[in-house]
Structure formats: structure tokens, C-alpha cells
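stuck on this fold:
=====
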Amino acid sequence: MSATVPRTSFPDLRRDFAASLVVFLVALPLCVGVAVASGVPAELGLVTGIVGGLVTGMMRGSSLQVSGPAAGLTVLVLEAVTAFGLSVLGAIVLAAGLLQILLGLLRLGRCFRAVSVSVVEGMLAGIGLVLIAGQLYAMAGLDAPAAGLDKIAGLPGALLRAAGNTEALLSVALGAGTIAVLVLWRRLPGRARAVPAPLAAVGLATLTVLLAGLPVATVEVRGLLDSVRPPSAEAFGELASLAAIGTVLAFTLIASAESLFGAAAVDRLHDGPRTDYDKELVAQGTGNAVCGVLGALPMTAVIVRSAANVQAGARTKAARVLHGVWLLLFAALFPSVLAYIPVPALAAVLVHAGGKLVPAAELAHLWRRQRGEAFVLGVTALAIVTIGMFEGVVAGLALAVAKTAWEASHLRLDIVDHGTGPIRVRLIGNATFLRLPNLLDSLEALPPERPVAMDLTEVHHLDHACRTALDTWSERHRGTVTGHTKALSK
């Protein structure tokens, strides 16, 4: 009787090792770019990427999803740093992470899947528009206005200022070239595309600046240990303000929704184990809690890195853990390399990423098929651009709930009148206060002298407002019919 030879895990390890290198090369420029665009030291982007690999990557939830600083949170982080200062950012991220853990332990992770897709896409579209507008200023070496609407409105004037400045024109040209590389990279032969497009674009831009000696801004390097600053007791005191609480809730909602929607997308890319949404929410919260303690950027699961991980052949969570190891080694051994990276190239990477957040094709499809959903998407994005992140998300959620309530309260009236005898009225569907005006208009239009027989057997739900209104109308109409009958008998 021969012994069964256990299946070796080395084939998976080889695939995971190769995939981790690909994800590392994708993550490196994005970590740095998101940090710079968020108004924090570039090293903090690497810290969040490291935590996303070594902490969140080790935990259960989604085995192939990769976490780190995301373009979708850039605008919100910049607003938080501007409003409260870098010292308070860690406290906000820590609070959001603890809230995510609590929601996961309460098994509310799946509830985020019930959030309207149109709200999430509208949220990302609004973020993308503000991100693109802000980074276009950075591409020209100009300071961007604080408000999202001011960023967009000020672009023509910024373009005119850049046109009259040679250094600004060189900076814009470098950024435009970086975007061109990102767009055209996928059309190259397969071997050339082995290098991830973001790394290739930033690498070519860096090489161009070094060889040509272009006078463009480069990343400021402070050192990894100097950039990590745990929040102080005074920073936690700032969380008592209503504005800080709103920011914590916005961080929690956006990071959780983006991560869990991303998990659903990643699950469609492979046939391995499915995501446990509650455990994934706990893993994301733990990562954000650690990032908060270190004073770093918040994290989400990032679909670009996750898709690269799956496409590179990853089989287990070892790939995402190893990508965190490579980021740690780079931050420890080669931090000075960051000082050579041109800021316009990083801004261009984020302009390209922001463009992917705006679902133009999806909006056109929704407008043809489901205009209500398209309206929710558009209003959410517009509110984020014109008012603010938190207010825009709340407005989108409220509009989605109102739309769903309106559609769920569908009520049909069938009125049959044979000319003699009682008029027969049959109600079909859900009778709620939302349909009450139309319902009463239809009933009050009936001849007051004719008796009415009302059939409610096909009403699935009759709320208190409708029941009271129907009883009141019925008593009034019965009195009208009786009075008319008495008048005829005289």
C-alpha cells in the first residue's frame, strides 16, 4: 500500500512570488502619487501600502484583493489635512478603522452591498472630477484652489497663466507625455507590457527630467521615520467637533464601500475562494487602525492592484503580503530615489486614474435604460463637486432611498363603471403616503351621487396614512350618496 504524497504548495508560491513583484511595481508610483496629491509626505503613501500588504494582507476576507492608498480617497484626505492639519489625520483614520472593525464584528459588511451602485459610481465620479481638476494644476506647477467647484471654474485662468510661463509649459508637456504613455502602453507588444504602465510612465518621465535637466518640481523626501508621526492626545480632542465626526463617517463609508464593491469585482476575475465581506471589513478596519496609529494615509482595497494581482497569476494571499515586503525594502533601502520623481508625472498618473473613476459609458447606458439611476449618479457627483464629499454622499443616499421608496409604492387603480349600479374600484400594489395625492385625486373625481364598491384584496401594503384617508373619503362619499338619495325621494 503506497503512501499518499501530499500536494506541494511550491507551484502556488512561485506564482505568488512573481505576482507580488508585478503588484509592487504597480503600487509604488501610485502610493507616492496619492500621498503627494493628498498633501502629505510621499513616504506616508508607502507606509499605507506596507500596512496594506503586511497587516491587511495577512488577514482573512478576500484572498487576492490588494489594499493601499487609493485615488478615490485623495480628495477627502486633502480636505481633511487642509481643515484639521496633518497631526489630526492619524486620529481620523484610526477612528474610521475602529468603526470599520465594529461594523464587521456586527456582521454589517454585507449591508454595504445594498448601497445603490449609482450612489457609489456617482461618488467615484465626483471624486474623479475633483481629482482631475486638482491634478491639472499640479501638472502645471500651480497651486489649486481648495473647493472642488473653484478648481474646475479656475482651470481656464490657470491654463492662460501656464501659457505665459516657460517652466509651466515644460511641466504640462511632461505630464501630457506621461498620460500618453499610460494610454498607449496597452497597445505595445506583450513583452513590453510586462512592465506596468504606471511604473513605465513615471520611469520614462524621471529619465527625461534627469537627461534633459528640465526645471520641474520633484518629490520632497523627508525620510521614513521622520514622516511617521503617531497622533497626539490633542489630535484626538479634535475628533469631538461635528466636522471631524462627519469626516470620520465619510472615510468609513467611502473606504468600506469601495473595498467591498472592489471585492465583488475581484471575485468575478478568479474561480478561487469567495470573499467573506464581514471579515474583509474587519481586515480593512485593522489596516486603517494601524495606519492611524502611524499617522499615515487611509487605505482601501484598490481594484487596479487587485486586478494586476489576479492577472499576474496569484493564487493565495502570499502575493499581497510579499508586495508589502517589497515596499518595505524599497522604503528602507532606496528612499532617496523618490527625490528624482517629477511631480507632474505623478499628477498625470492621478489624472489618468481620475478619468477611470468617471463612468461616462455607464452613465450613457443608464440614461437610455434607467434614467432614475442616471439621475442619482449625476446628482451625487454634482453635489460632491459643488458642496463637498460628505454632503454629496448623504445627498446621493437620500435620493436613492427616496427613488426606491417611490418605485416600491407602485399603486394601480382599476375603475369599472357600467353606467348603472355601483362603480367598482380595485386597488393593486402598495398604498403608501407617497401615492396618496394621486389616489385621492382619482377617488374625488368619481361622481358624488354614485355608490362605490372598493376592492382592496390585491393591496400588498396599506400604510396608516392611506388607511385613514380612505376611511375619511369613504365616510364623506357615503354621506354624499345618502344625501343625494334622500333628495331624489322627495
About this structure: Residues 11-357 form one domain. DSSP finds 21 helices and five strands in the chain.
